[in-house]
Amino acid sequence: MMDIAIYSLVDDMVSKAGTEGVVEYWLRVGESYAERMGKEAYVGWPAFNVAMKDGRTSLTVEGDVNVQTDLAITDKDGDVIGYVYALKVCPMAPSMGRYISRIGPIPDSDTDVADSYNNRIRDSAVSNYCITHQKFREVAANNITVAKQALECLQLANKGMTGEVKMVPDNLSRINVDERHIKSILRNASCVFALIVKGKSAGEEIID
Amino acid sequence: MAENIESNPFVDVSVFLFFEDISDKQGVEGFTNYMVGQAESLAKSVPEEEYKTWDDFTNAVVNGESVLSSFESIGQISKFGFVTNVCPFSKAIREYIKRIGNFNPVHMEATDHYNHTIQPSAAHSACMMHQTYRKEVAKRIKIGGKPLQYAQIAAKAYTGKIALPPESWKKVLLEKAGISETQGFMEMRENSCLYLLYVEE
Fold first, then answer.
1. Contact status of B133 with chain A (Cβ, < 8 Å)
2. Global pTM exceeds 0.90
3. ipTM of this model?
């Protein structure tokens, strides 16, 4: 029942704090959630990927993740700097389904808040909940080290309830993965992201 | 509707954190107001219901067909006495404790605030949402043309603490439910919530 409250809560909050206020609340929630999950350390990518498959990391509390081991991301020297991951089911999907069947259509405030985020911060939210979820992943990734190197999460693509797809071209080019490949992964997933060593990219340059 | 109450705990926990963030900005009163306000909004969004007889209504509630049982499995223990076996927030509470640790004290502060300013019936902050939802949804249900009435008798927190009304209220509520105090406590060993649903004669 707590999850269903999101829609009426966001509706109420929009009328009091506006869509921008709700976006700020959600960003803070994502950050504090991840910070309170604590830090993790793995000796290398194989150990980390097994933990991801087993659902033992803070990044997999949200649900089962497919580790795309065929999509290892390498730097200019050919060293592996990260992988692509696909979340099978959006954590909001069961709640959305129950809300629609039990209460009615999803309130417009859901899209209004997502649009506010997409227009002002990054065009990557298909529902208001994506705001906190994506922020959670970004902060949680910073709290994980693989071979003593902190990680960075890059949101790549996600799919909404009606089939709407959001892609983040800047992040795709940073890891040098083709958009069509990510779209094919999205056929059987709801969200695709990359975890890479913080500051690295598939190209020559190191991102600050 | 027991088979349909599963949610992703990731979402549940984040909603608790959302309320904690509200309390950082607007204090315990803001927390309580938002919790109650959104439950009222949610209840106003649900479809209205009407039943010809009391038995039609109780059958729908117990079989999970009423909006009252959208989020919980409800059992009937007497004509007007009803119980919820498993608190629909228990999974979210367990997941919060498992993932994050001790509950932020603000939840208990908000519960106390609710018990002192609205009614003394909440065992946890989630009870504020749940009981408000039930109260508002009851207004949308008519039985034989009369609106359904709801009154909370007891609620049990994850710590085992049971929230009870003052003695004078408790006596009246138990009498209306047609059960003794001992029977009420027996019900609370097996269930998380005990309440009255009735129509004015």
1. yes
2. no
3. 0.71
